[in-house]
Amino acid sequence: MSEQVQYEASSKRLVLACCLLVGFMAGEVVAGYLASSLALIADAGHMLTDAISIVAVIWTTSLARRPATARWTFGLSRAEIVAAAINGISLLVVAGLIVQAAIEHLISPPQTDGTSVIILASIGIVINLIVVWLLGEVKRGSLNAKAAFVHVTTDLAAFVGTLVAGIVIVTTAFSRADAVASLGVAGLIIWASFGLLRDSARVLLEGVPEEVDIKQVRSHIVAIPGVLDVHDLHAWTLSTRRPVVSAHVVVSDVSFKDGSAGQVLDQLQDCLGDHFDVAHSTFQLEPGSHQAHEAEFHS
Questions:
Q1: Could you state, in order of their start, the residue ranges of all structural domains in the chain?
Q2: What is the DSSP letter of 209?
Q3: Do 23 and 128 form a contact (C-beta atoms < 8 A)?
Q4: How far lies 2's CA from each of 9, 80, 241, in Å?
């Protein structure tokens, strides 16, 4: 499947998933208000962030496909990381609002229609299962797509909790079960948000990619014939699928005289591509005497 065909198929899945979420969310807000169920309204609020996260995936994927320009020399692929971070923050805001309302309902619980809660939660589980299936392949593409998938899976778990709360209300008349379920929803949302913020911060702060062991990278570089040492070694990611490495590599003076420095460079890039799946690397080859000209030397 070509990249263009895959992009179009993923876009159709995303649009369909977004339509399902928005349509059900609108009905759930009305039903939650009529049933006096905070858990249903909380789920609807979470579904709103689900829909927003999917729209963000569609938008940032489109941006990432734009070619590099004189102003944006790496393109706009990192827009997906910014969107993922915003997603994480939005989840925390939603969770805070849910916790505040849940505490109020624990103190003064309203009369909740448990039957309506059971029916809406059951439909919500079905809708979210469909959306999870639609996003199953898309989530592999980027951190932002993963963020949308996390949104929906936590929403699915929240609906299961809401269903249990409805059953408890119908069978025991314990109306505070609705608020307890809402706190469970908030807990799931907070857990999901921290994961997204951690992963997006690693990229935005240019941390070493989780799958790259910088010590192993150093060991592979110095093991290449002709390499004497390496310093200013950095590894980061432009986006979730674009790891980058740069380094100052000290080679023997002979390499510059006999022309073998080019072969060393070829071996360096082949090594990183084969062992660490790094497609973009930048190396500064230098003789040992160049160290005295370094403004700041990093071992």
A1: 3-204, 214-293
A2: P
A3: no
A4: 11, 22, 17
- How wide is the angle at C-alpha 293 spanned by C-alphas 289 and 297, nearest 5°? 95
> Which pLDDT belongs to residue 85?
85
How high is the pLDDT of residue 219?
92
235 dihedral zone (left: phi>0; alpha: psi -120 to 50; beta): beta
> Are 260 and 226 spatial neighbours (Cβ–Cβ below 8 Å)?
yes
Considering the domain 3-204, what is its CATH architecture?
Up-down Bundle (1.20)
DSSP string, 137-150: TGGGS-HHHHHHHH
CA 215 to chain centre: 26
**pTM of the model as a whole:** 0.72
| Whole-number Å distance between alpha carbons of 74 and 117 | 49
From residue 131, give the alpha-carbon distance in Å to each of 19, 20, 41, 74, 124: 10, 8, 19, 32, 10
Could you give the 3-state DSSP secondary structure of residue 264?
A: helix
Instruction: Give 80-148 as a DSSP string.
Output: HHHHHHHHHHHHHHHHHHHHHHHHHHHHS-----HHHHHHHHHHHHHHHHHHHHHHTTGGGS-HHHHHH
Label residues 11-34 b or e (16+ Cβ within 10 Å = b).
Answer: eebbeebbebbbebbeebbebbee
Q: In one letter, which amino acid is 98?
A: I
pLDDT at residue 57 in the model: 77
Q: CATH: 3.30.70.1350, 2.60.120.290, 3.40.50.880, 3.40.50.740. Which one for 214-293?
A: 3.30.70.1350
pLDDT one-digit tens code per residue, 198-216: 888 888 888 888 878 889 9
Matching CATH topology for 3-204 and 214-293?
no
